[in-house]
Amino acid sequence: MKFDNRLVLFNLRLFDSERGRLLHDRSVLVEGERIEAVEKGLAAQESGAFTPVDLGGLTLMPGLIDTHVHITMPFMHEMTPRAFFAVGRQIERNARACIEAGITTVRDTGGFPGRLSSLISAIDSNDIPGPRIIRCNSCITAPGGCPDWVPLFPRFIKAFLGGQYAERVGSPEEAARQTGEMIRQGAQWIKVYCQHRSWLLGGGDLPVLDPGTFRAVMDTARGSGRKVCCHISRLEDLEYAMSMGVDTFEHNPLDEIADHAAVEFAARGMAINPTLACLDAGSDELWQTVESVLDERGPSILEPEPLRQVRRYIRTYRTDPYPPPKSAYRKKPCFDLALIARGFPHALANVGRVLHAGGRIGIGTDSGGLPSALFGVFYAEELKRLRLAGLTPAQVLMLATSGNASILGMDDRIGTIRPGRIADMIAVEGNPLEDLGAVSKVRMVMKSGRFLKGAPGAKHFRIVSKWLRGRNSR
């Protein structure tokens, strides 16, 4: 159905993402891709100029934002013949899954530049539904450094995938050249890795960018007006990257952030996206959730070959002998779940420690970054773990919307339902301030003023319009 250029959404509860409260008796006027007004009542005086949309008492929120995804990762680590045919289709499914979950903006913190360009083009031309993508393109890291589970792809595979996942640089000159190339290919942020110790069984210590090479990345990014996000895993990573002046930290130290580091972090205005669900990889409850989702709707979110490989990945940790013998994990990377599980309580406590110091926390999921990190599913799991860290539902939802928009430097465009903002909005069933689970019950998604999910039908419009005419004639 084709909708009028002007819409009024009414009969709703409005989530104020700046103050963490619900507003009642409001209507939201949308013109084109922008929010024109938020008014008390039904704004009946505009009846001749808009099409009314009755939301039936749902809660209207800004579109959710995910600050850490890998949307071009196809949930496959083995390039089988079937995998070659499934890559493109799976990437499109990743984009659709974001919209189904109410996620209208993502920051991709590492992917294949060519695939990202194709996906963004398809979304922008409305060929497929998908979120607004803020891209980093390929990550920058040291030779032999993290991500040590991602190989250097040969020329043919690189061409097919649309680039390397990680560009490995060993000098300031290489760093400046590769950072500049990512920017030339459309990167709005730059992603670097700074992890001194591996997450893999038998991984041990890892090289990181030396200060001169790290500064070359920073200087090149800054010279083009780009911000830098940095993958970390321990306090020494955080402190080193903090000295380099990065803007956001991806993941969360698996050891305690010292008070002085938290204070300095806050003073610098930096932000951390803790990806708690990702770091809770040793959780039996999380594994059960992923398995349940795959049983219930796996074929709807994963292509057959990715689904097969994800199930096989889960067997590695759930049913096969774990940990495997050294001969096995030397041939095929295997995450050290015990190492990560030992650090998770620190990661959880660090969220409160950073907030107490006045620092900023974002919401990112690492969806696509692990074979088990399903799009949409991990967003709900991340919200749950932020509650475990001591945040209230209102605080969590503020981080997911206006807070994330601020971290991305986009708070003048998205993250709030205010006049002049882009009309990215979702409607959920229930009261998310009482039950965060309501955020998983997304009934309507609007992105840039267009319904991508739950668009009201023509019959519904006729009924509402008749009711409204009667109201105006009184």
Structure description:
It is a single chain. By secondary structure, the protein is α/β, with parallel strands linked by helices. The chain has 2 domains: 6-62 and 417-472, Urease, subunit C, domain 1; 64-286 and 319-407, Metal-dependent hydrolases (TIM Barrel, Alpha-Beta Barrel). Helix content is 39%, strand content 18%. The protein contains 15 helices and 20 strands. The chain has helices spanning 81-100, 113-124, 155-161, 172-184, 211-223, 235-244, 259-267, 276-279, 284-301, 304-318, 326-329, 337-356, 377-388, 393-407, 458-472; strands at residues 6-10, 13-16, 21-23, 26-31, 34-40, 51-54, 59-62, 64-69, 103-108, 132-135, 139-141, 166-168, 189-193, 227-231, 248-250, 271-273, 360-361, 425-428, 442-447, 450-453. Strands 3-2-7-18-19-20 form a 6-stranded mixed sheet, with helices on one face. A 5-stranded parallel sheet has the order 13-14-15-16-17, with helices on both faces. α9 packs antiparallel against α10. The longest helix is centred in the first third of the chain and has 20 residues, at 81-100. The radius of gyration is 23 Å and the shape is globular. The chain starts with 5 loop residues before the first strand and ends with a helix. The model is unreliable at 458-474 (pLDDT under 50).
